[in-house]
């Protein structure tokens, strides 16, 4: 199956400073991928290149289109949310829907209205009178009514409280996602989306360090609560990180490189945050 997004050798510099350094990434139908990295790693710059919003070097194919040359055609099948707080305040909800009908050929007005009918958002309300959570719901109503193959979300829930953030993602799964579509998300709140991600790509200093299915990396990496008498032995197996707190020692290992982990202590499956800290930390110390 052809990937919906294929990025190869993507490079980008600002004022002679390289920000993306030969980055490659592939997104296939059915995938919900988290693009995860520390501040300044290049996530937004990468998404902006994919969206054709920034000049770049390298090759990007989005749904068979080159974002530099065919941006208009590409946007027919692609939807993008940067920050839910960007809708103009003075607009009424009904006007926002009308606006979308005018600008997006694949926007389904009835689908959008049906989603809004399930919320407490009045059609005649001005956006400035809505709470942040309601604005997020309105944003979703606009985005999910676009019959897009790919949805790109850059920190979509910034500024929302935890309940609204959870709602945002559960509505997203319920109303947008299907196996012929793909979603690419950046967020710093990995723990909140780790259960919905099928894939994850760790980006550090303009490069992808790891891009795998979440099932695969949860098998590959293991967290061990190391028994006190095994600490030195465990350290000699080169853990990706070692955290010692109140006499307890947690270490993250690549299970393929350190096969006999149960002999060191209690083995468990790490969270994506654990794996992220281990992989990025190792790279930073290299
Ligand atoms: N318009 C710009 N001009 C100059 N430098 C820029 C510009 N935009 C981004 N940068 C730099 O590029 C690097 C990557 O920025 P980018 O916003 O892509 O990172 P990010 O991973 O999205 O970060 P964050 O998680 O903090 O949002 C940073 O060093 C940033 O300062």
TrEMBL record:
One GO MF term: ATP binding
Entry keywords, A to Z: ATP-binding, Nucleotide-binding, Transport
SUPFAM superfamilies: P-loop containing nucleoside triphosphate hydrolases
Domain ABC transporter: 5-230
Matches recorded under InterPro entries: AAA+_ATPase (IPR003593), ABC_transporter-like_ATP-bd (IPR003439), ABC_Transporter_VariousFunc (IPR051782), P-loop_NTPase (IPR027417)
Protein name: ABC transporter ATP-binding protein
